[in-house]
Specification:
This protein has 3 helices and 8 strands. A 5-stranded antiparallel β-sheet has the order 1-2-3-6-7. It has a 3-stranded mixed β-sheet with strand order 5-4-8, with helices on one face. The protein has one domain: Peptide Deformylase (Alpha-Beta Complex). The radius of gyration is 16 Å and the shape is globular. The chain has helices at residues 28-44, 47-53, 145-158; strands at residues 60-62, 72-78, 84-97, 101-104, 123-124, 126-133, 138-144, 180-182. The longest helix is centred in the first third of the chain and has 17 residues, at 28-44. The protein has 183 residues and is an alpha+beta fold. The structure holds the ligand O=CN(O)C[C@@H](CC1CCCC1)C(=O)N1NCCC[C@H]1C(=O)Nc1ccccn1 and nickel (II) ion.
């Protein structure tokens, strides 16, 4: 099972590399990795399991965080309306996005970053994302709000981008014009 010791931390080269696309149909190895990544997220959100294995709760994880530079990412969480987002995705691509921006009002963190980094992380408010899921089916998702932010955070990892790369150095809490805060 994946635990925190498997998650590489900032300074590890895998986090700033552009990852490679994977072959479709997925190899057994890549499919098994996506399954393990989803299981980690489920475990991390389960109080007993997280306490037992000292897991930090996460809603998404990308293969580079495991030192693996493949375009594989997993997302698992329920939004405020109880809608479940649970995906193991290969070769995700943001094919279109809104002009408008959005950001988490509380800022962002990362399981690969063992420190608080203050500031707003401006992202696209809405995105259309295409990918292949773990059963080799094409996925076409239109996302807004918190889910849109989560998916963008993970896609960034596959391109070697960390959340703090988006924070305005001169004014971390500067709100880009017409950007929407997500509580
Ligand atoms: O690349 C992937 N990562 O680095 C895991 C990150 C991904 C999120 C950060 C901002 C958008 C996506 C993650 O999940 N976190 N960041 C650090 C500690 C907190 C944790 C988190 O937000 N946990 C959470 C939130 C709601 C419900 C349950 N748990
Ligand atoms: Ni992260």
């Amino acid at each position: 099972m994946i635990t925190m010791k498997d998650i590489v931390r900032e300074g590890h080269p895998a986090l700033t590399k552009v990852s490679q696309e994977v072959d479709i149909p997925l190899s057994h190895e890549d499919k098994a990795l996506l399954e393990e990544m989803i299981q980690f997220l489920k475990n991390s959100q389960n109080e007993e399991v997280a306490a037992k294995y000292n897991l930090r709760a996460g809603v998404g994880i990308a293969a580079p965080q495991l030192g693996i530079n493949k375009k594989l990412m997993a997302i698992h969480f329920e939004d405020e309306n109880g809608k479940l987002y649970s995906y193991g995705l290969a070769n995700p691509k943001i094919v279109s996005h809104s002009v408008g921006k959005a950001y988490l009002a509380g800022g962002e963190g990362c399981l690969s970053v063992d420190r608080q980094v203050e500031g707003y992380v401006p992202r696209h408010a809405r995105i259309t994302l295409k990918a292949t899921d773990m059963d080799n089916n094409p996925v076409n998702l239109r996302l807004k709000g918190y889910p849109s932010i989560v998916f963008q955070h993970e896609v960034d990892h596959l391109n070697g981008i960390m959340f703090y790369d988006h924070i305005n150095k001169d004014d971390p809490f500067e709100v880009p014009d017409n950007a929407r805060p997500i509580e």
